[in-house]
Amino acid sequence: MNPAAIETTNVVKRYPRTTALNGVSLRVEQGEFFGLLGPNGAGKTTLISIVAGLARATSGTACVLGHDVAADYRAARRALGVVPQELVFDPFFTVRETLRIQSGYFGLRHNDAWIDELLENLALTAKADTNMRALSGGMKRRVLVAQALVHRPPVIVLDEPTAGVDVELRQTLWRFIRRLNREGHTIVLTTHYLEEAQELCGRIAMLKAGRVVALDSTRALLAGLEGVRMSFRLTGELPVALAGKLAERDGVRIALRLSGAEEVESALAALRVAGAKIDDLEVGHADLEDVFLQLTSDRRSLEPPPPRAGESFLPSPASAGEGQGVRASGSPTGQPA
Known about the structure:
Order of helices and strands: EEEHEEHEHHHEHEHEEHEHEEHEH
Number of strands: 14
Strand content: 25-35%
Shape: globular
Radius of gyration: 22 Å
Strand order of the largest sheet: 6-7-8-3-9-10
Structural class: alpha/beta
Distance between the termini: 32 Å
Largest sheet: 6 strands, mixed
């Protein structure tokens, strides 16, 4: 049996005043395009930091391609490329110099051909000899992607890679990442753009308050939320009869979750009777945003659901050993803390 691209078993991360992760177990298979979703503070970045060797797990284990991130840290880091949320760069080097230095961290002396390919695929060729300080925010983010890929890692983690970037970068990035996935690379994506996750990811895990509250194929998650979504701009008050069907409210923009198309007319009738005026009406099938809102707003979802056939929930061990820490370093040669 091939090792998982990423496997975490009962990972716990505690800080003095909070628990960031509370027994997270999941398995990402090789070659998957996997989504890791959750609201702010759910523990996504903490989990990625532990997998990347940048944070200590209080307990539990994390492995990359079978390599424990603490006990076999060099192999684990060589197998992983991480694109962080933050724009972190060295202001003293050009784009090409930055990528050559990153190559050197992994012992790659003659890597210019792959660097040139990265520059071309990320539309950075014209900026190759430009100092990092002179780049726009979007261009800096492209360089971060190139840095994560410069040592050709089989497992790639993208932590909100399109946050605050333009449409051109999104299209360029996803075109290249899709190609890498077709070639066998495992992709793990965290994003707040749920339409991206719905389009790209074959399976999705959702975190809430440091726990996995859903883990299934994207299709199964969508199929589990029946009915239609009706959204509109509202002038007036929402009738009491429709309050229980409210899925989302953003100012005057209302979204209702209805059991089926036949309920649309009764909802419109209730609005007319109440004297409410609506415009910009949209009716469609439930999407990943509806699943996300239901799971992250439902207090019962804090209890992980029982695993079903085909799901990748792992049994929590009766007792988990203390995780070993590693030094936060971008190099695969860092030593244990």
